[in-house]
Amino acid sequence: MTPEKFPEHIRDHIIPTPSGEMCYRCLGCTETFGIDKLLYTCPACGEVLLLQDMEQNRLKGLSGQTWREILDYRRMLKIPALKGIYRFHEFIGPVIPLESILYLGEGHTPIVQANETLQEIVGMPFYYKNDGQNPSASFKDRGMASALSYIRYLVTSGKVDNVLAVCASTGDTSAAAALYASYLQPLVKSAVLLPHGKVTPQQLSQPLGNGAAVFEIPGVFDDCMKVVEALSEKYNVALLNSKNAWRILGQESYSYEIAQDLEFDMKNKVVVVPIGNAGNITAVMAGFLKFLDAGIITELPKILGVQSHHANPVYQYYSEPDAKKRRFVPMTVKPSVAQAAMIGNPVSMPRVISLVNQYNKKADCQKVFFVSVPEQEIMDCQLMANRNGHIACTHGGETLAGLIRARKEGLVHSDETAIIDSTAHALKFSGFQEMYFEDRLPEEYEVKPQKSLQNKPVFIRPEGLKEVPAPGMPLTGTAFREFVCQTADAIANNLHLSLRDQ
């Protein structure tokens, strides 16, 4: 559908043009800096940065109802730059021209309602948002679409050249970074650092397949992050971890999509996200705050952050009820099936603290909560979800376990509706499922399989068969008929099937 067919009062706003004035704002000293070059930490005090639109109040020039109409009608456009996260252009990267926007099919992942069985187990209605249906099969594509679109803009406007994009990763970030950078080659090349032996084979194959330089180093993600930070401080590279504030902007689209899919009605809603490097929960809060400020939504949803017992520094921080006594202490993580969240010193922690305060203040009550769950519940919940029609990764199991825990603790209620995050596709973490089924998860994971959730293939070869088919050696005639008949009978016996009435 083309804009001339849209209502006249929104026609001029359907296709956005560059607007606003963006800057980096330090969360420590509050100093602001221009965006003509990439910054990751404050040049004045070294604290974490957020991107801010200095002219954001201009968005209030349109009513919330008008914005809702604009965004709904924009859904009908066939313009690639506006099909993904930049449907929300004015809220994500208003200074970026449409021709610089990189779209690979990311965003607008479905929210899938849980069936009655799962809703009864949890005790409230809820949906999964399947971010594993992004191009590289994880939510990280949202941030990469934003970060690489801005890098593309800097390159095409002559402000930078010969860009080498680098990141530390537990798997999903490297896959997304390599994919989006490969689209822009030879203008952009990529290199990723991974903790040796701590990334699933499926995740490792992705940056290799997209042509990135892949380096495995001893230690865990936190060690990789320190090396990448050292590279970005000393050498001319573009950092693509969530320390990059453009990444956070792109991930705000998660909030905008939920709001739009729920008709912008966020009353009695709960958004549940796992926490690793804390960029995602930061972006979710920031996104809802922007929509509230613009009048697009009229109420903030609850936010529930979930961590594993094996990597829960954010939960530990907020477990102290007295805000004045809270002190953030990085922790040494233990192995987790929620591998991407196995981070003991999240770089976005200063952003979390700042935004939680803003969020609760704007809501006039506590709206952000945190829970911690054991590895056993994470793995059991992933399998339970997928046995009921979902494609949840282990982090999707973590959010389901977190929702169940929050329900028991009275943090959420039966008259609310939850939207829980499955950050990646189940196939990325199929190795953990396989180990669960075969009861060979290492002891340090502290997971023992429930028999009711285990599954394995059954090899069928009836004992009476003299001949069976093999590749390149098909059966024919009587031998083939006997094979089909006896194998079918053996399977029916295994499944306890009844004969049809004659």
From TrEMBL:
Gene3D superfamilies annotated for this entry?
A: 3.40.50.1100
Q: Which cofactor does it need?
A: pyridoxal 5'-phosphate
* Top-level division of the source organism's lineage: Bacteria
Tell me the route in metabolism or biology where this protein functions. Amino-acid biosynthesis; L-threonine biosynthesis; L-threonine from L-aspartate: step 5/5
Q: Does the keyword RNA-binding apply?
A: no
State a single Gene Ontology molecular function: threonine synthase activity
Q: Which reaction does it catalyse?
A: O-phospho-L-homoserine + H2O = L-threonine + phosphate
Q: Tell me which PROSITE patterns the record gives.
A: DEHYDRATASE_SER_THR
List the SUPFAM superfamilies hit by this protein, alphabetically: Tryptophan synthase beta subunit-like PLP-dependent enzymes
Q: Answer yes or no on keyword Amino-acid biosynthesis.
A: yes
Which InterPro entries does the protein's record reference?
Ser/Thr_Dehydratase (IPR050147), Ser/Thr_deHydtase_PyrdxlP-BS (IPR000634), Thr_synthase-like (IPR004450), TrpB-like_PALP (IPR001926), TrpB-like_PALP_sf (IPR036052)
Q: What is its EC number?
A: 4.2.3.1
Which protein family is named in the record? Belongs to the threonine synthase family.
Protein name, per record: Threonine synthase
Whichever gene encodes this chain, its name is: thrC
